[in-house]
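Hi V.,

You were right to ask for the full record rather than a summary. Here it is.
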Amino acid sequence: MDRERLAFIWLAKHAEWQRVRDLMRALGWGVYQPEQDVQGSMWAREREERLAGALEAQSSSGEQGQEGADELHTEVWLSAASSRLLRSVAYRAGLPPSQVLAQLAERIVVGEDGTVSVPPFTPSQ
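Predicted structure:
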């Protein structure tokens, strides 16, 4: 985690502890009583609902993910020269650059010595 996120989390936890302290003082509690903390109980329910929703979404995406388990989604950063060349090829083929890269990847040949090459081809729709 980055420092900014950690600082935000710490501040949020600190503010919550202060809220609980102030609530206990105001109501004269010697011990925190979560069932009597309306705000805290509401937040806990919201957290549980978000968690249940996230788990459900993860479960459904996991089922979908099984179908495409071999798929790879990536972000590629190219040099200016390679980027210009790729955009030029994609423009001539009438394709987005990502599809040209996908077609390149589908045609990769790995030699016995580990060399990687792509036989000549014409990108198509």
